[in-house]
Fold this protein.
Amino acid sequence: MKLISELNNIRLNPRFDGVFHDDLNEIEFIYAFLNPESEHNKEVMDRKFNLNFEGVSYECYFAEPTERMLKLASGFERLPSDPSRISVSQIIPFRDFQRIDKLPEKVREYFKNKIPRNFFIKTASLPHGANLDRLVRHINFLLAYYDRSSPLISINEREDGGLPEDCKPIRHIDDSFPQYLSINSIDDIILKLIEVARGGQSRFSFLYYYQVFEFAGYHYVDENIKKALRHHLKDPALINCGEEKISELFSIFSEASYNDDVKMKKVIEEYCDPSVVWKEIENDKEFFCQEHSFQGGFELKPMIATDTTAATWKTMWMPKLYDQLTKVRNSLVHARERRENKVILPTKANNKILSHYIPVIARVAEQVALKA
C-alpha cells in the first residue's frame, strides 16, 4: 500500500528525464554516478544555489536519488522501439546499481568509488507547461554561464503530429551519370560552403547553401554591363574623354551598383536552369503545394499550385523561388525577421520541414557554383 501511495504522488513528463514529486513540489532530474575524488565532480556533486526567477524562489541542488526514484528505476525495462527515440538512458545505471551482485565483474567495476547524484528543483508551487520550459531553460543558461563544464537538464523535443513525411531526393538530375565531363575551376570558398552544407543538419545546410548566393552575388557583374563597358574601352576616341563619353561611362557604373538582393536574383536567374530546379520540386510536389507553419510563428505560403507544370514553372519561378528561400533564410538568421516579425526556432520539427527545401536550394547553389 505504501508503494501505491508513493506512486500516486509522482508523475513523469516526457519533456524531461526526471520524476515530479507533486506532494513535495519538487522535480528530480536523473543524472549519473560520480567519483567524488574527481576534481571536476567535487564541486558539482554537492552544488546548491537559490534562484529567484519571475518573483518565485527556487532551491536548486545536487543530491542522492530519492527512494521513489530508485523504486522506479528498479523496475525499468527498455522495450523494443525506434532507436532514434531512446529516452531516459541515464536511468539504467540506477537500476543496475540496485542489483549489483548479479552484474558481471566488468559492469560492477563502473560503480567502484562512485556516488549516485540527481539534480533537484524545489519550490512552493511547481510551474507547468511553457512556464516550466522557461524555468529550465533559464537554469541551463545560468549553469553553463557560470560553469562551462556544468551538466545541463535535458529537454526532450515534443513529437509533433501533422509534419510532412520524409522525402527521398531524386538520384540523377539526368537519366544517368554522364560519361564525359568538363568543368571550369570553381571558387574555393563556394566549394567549401557546399562541402559543409552537404554534411550538416537541415538548418545549417540551408544557411550554407544560401551563402553561395551571397558570395556569388557580391562578385556578380551583369553580362550586358560588361559588354557595354568593353564596347566603350575599345573605342579609339575614348582617350579624348568627351563629356558625352564620361556621362555614358557614369551611366554604366551606376547600373552596376545594384543592391545585394538584386545581384543575388540576377545570379540565380542567369546561372540556373528552371527545368533542373523543377525536377526537385516535382519530386516533392505535394509538400510544395502546401502552406507550412514553423515553431516560432513563421509561416510559408505554398511555392506552387497543385496544377503547376514544368511549363508554368518556367514562367513564374523567379522571383518566386528567390523570395521563398530568402524569407526562410531571414527567419533562420534574424532574431526577428524584418518583414514577417516571426522566427524559425531550432527544433527537430522545424528541421524536418526544412529538410524538404534542402534538395531544391542545393540544386540552385550547385548550378550557381558551376557557372559563377
